[in-house]
Amino acid sequence: MPGLWGELLISFGMVALTVTTHLVGLMGILRATAYHIEHWRTPWLPLDRLLVPLAVATALFLLHGLEVWAYALLFLAGEATDGLEQALFVSAGAYSTAGWMNAEVSDGWRIVAVLESLNGMLLLGWSTAFLFQTLHRVLTTEDQHPIPEGAIAQEETGVAGKDSPRPKRSGKGAPDGTNSSETELMQ
């Protein structure tokens, strides 16, 4: 039993380990996705539109599995649970914030399990943002997207118009940097 300060120290170490693992994993997934697009694209676009998201989602699932296993092995080594299966069950339940039933965590390890939940929630959120950003990046082009990029953003010099926060308009009535189809969506 490590005690409260020991649990907090162990938790901090696990957060550092899993965040580092996650960062390296996401960088690897990003590089693998770019490599696939540059070197292994198929001539059949629908196949790539299936393979790339499937591969990214599978890699994220495996990355989270690795992090769950890291906590499970910690619980097992610290004798926080009764065996590997229970350690995995507790770790997966904590990491996913689903919780666990019919499993006990020894005194001195409960704070670690609770903080695993917070860590898991942040890492799952990070993966969700990464997945959406990656899929947006590979599945749409600026011409295909219904909303123009930066449609309501401020220009570098501050507000776009002298008295208006809207983008400056060209002679056709469309905001600069947009095409007519984008203008129709904005009206």
Q: How does this model look, in words?
A:
- The chain crosses the membrane at residues 12-30, 50-74, 109-132.
- It comes from Phenylobacterium deserti.
- The chain is an all-alpha fold.
- The chain folds into 2 domains: 3-139, no CATH class; 148-187, no CATH class.
- It is built from 5 helices and no strands.
- The chain has helices at 3-39, 45-77, 84-95, 110-139, 180-186.
Task: Spell out the key features of this protein.
single chain, 187 residues, mainly alpha, 2 domains, 5 helices, 64% helix, elongated, disordered C terminus
Number of domains: 2
The count of strands amounts to 0
What sequence of helices (H) and strands (E) makes up the elements?
HHHHH
* Through-space gap between termini: 64 Å
Radius of gyration: 24 Å
Q: Could you say which structural class the secondary elements and strand pairing correspond to? A: mainly alpha
Shape: elongated
Largest sheet: none
| Overall average residue pLDDT | 83
**Range of helix content:** 55-70%
Question: What proportion of the residues form beta strands (DSSP E)?
Answer: under 5%
Task: List the uncertain runs.
Answer: 169-174, 180-187
Query: Helical stretch count?
Result: 5
